């Protein structure tokens, strides 16, 4: 047999694969004569496939008996020096502050880096990340509890006779059942980020990015206003919930010459977000957008925002000047230290930013264009999903007595939408509502009679 054939049939592993076993059997079958193996068939096959004669003989015997599967048990090899239970206990005895990296765990436990890597791969230990959350006082927790409780209503008994409480559809208020809520908030959007991940082929190199300082990266603050998507019966179409997104910037002529533009050229200048500028944006941009796009059958609108200092200028008395033509606008502040109770902070801003960062921006105008484009590209299904997540968060707030010590829920909304089983609203057990009512009564907090 030539050396080239032997090289082609050499094996990297000492264990025979199923494919190699089948090839050996086929080769032996070709040498059969009158139901028996030909003379020298086993030896020639062993040389051809670079295996021992005994291996070929046992393989043929197993084939004749009707079973060529491995005879070894499921777990073979030497016993581990340290069992999974021992590794779990050793790692558990180390303070969590000393488990931030694999090397830290190795230094603290004495286990090798390879052993820790294998433990991470087989699930003995897990990698998890944590983020700082807002510190809540007892008063904050009660306010969060009352806020979420006001968003729950009792439905009619189902077929089984049990009452079910469900998050109110369209984010309805308890005291005004046909009111609709518009979530408003501001956010900075940067032209670029300090660390950017990219996947490359072996012959590619990472792009060299430079800047004088992180302070020189252009950024723009935007005000966004959204509501829950719904069907607009008056227009016979779907209302996508996206009322608008506006940058705190103005076009003004340049006052002096520079190497970039001549004096008098129109340039984009940023506006400081003050009480006056925020009130002007609400009255001149948000309110007209609501009147233009909002379903006209529902003209009682609640504007929800956080407790930032510039928001103090927007009060109900200010909104009375624009509450015309049957429209009624009121302000509602979400509980302090509760960004998880606003749809924008909860996830919609993150979705916008994920799309905005796919476009390379080098100036303020580029940031504005990319951000507004991302806002328009997001589908109303994405916004509706965040509203469902908000309802799930409200239920968790009730479960944790107003605290924020919980993970954001994953409802698998996209899979449920494809299967046609996506719920319209998130349900809430009656026992949980009764528990919240009892806590609020103990703090002498009254809820509307409709609840």
Summarize the structure.
The chain is 38% helix and 14% strand.
Verbal overview:
This protein has 15 helices and 14 strands. It is of the alpha+beta class and 451 residues long. It has three domains: 3-65, no CATH class; 84-122; 138-442, Nucleotidyltransferase, domain 5. Strands 9-6-5-12-13 form a five-stranded mixed β-sheet. Strands 3-4-14 form a three-stranded antiparallel β-sheet. Helix 2 packs antiparallel against helix 3, helix 3 (41-49) crosses helix 4 (53-65) and helix 11 runs antiparallel to helix 13 (380-399). The N and C termini lie far apart (89 Å). Mean pLDDT is 86; it is low at 1-8 and 156-178.
Task: Summarize the helices and strands and which ones pair or pack.
Blueprint: H1 3-8, H2 18-30, E1 32-33, E2 36-37, H3 41-49, H4 53-65, H5 84-92, H6 102-109, H7 113-122, H8 138-149, E3 152-154, E4 165-167, E5 180-190, E6 219-226, E7 230-232, E8 237-239, E9 242-247, E10 249-253, E11 266-270, H9 275-293, E12 300-305, H10 316-319, E13 328-333, H11 343-356, H12 364-377, H13 380-399, H14 413-419, E14 427-428, H15 430-442
Parallel strand pairs: 5-12, 12-13
Antiparallel strand pairs: 1-2, 3-4, 4-14, 5-6, 6-9, 7-8, 10-11
Helix pairs in contact: 2-3, 2-4, 3-4, 8-13, 8-15, 11-12, 11-13
Protein name: Transposase Tc1-like domain-containing protein
GO molecular function: nucleic acid binding
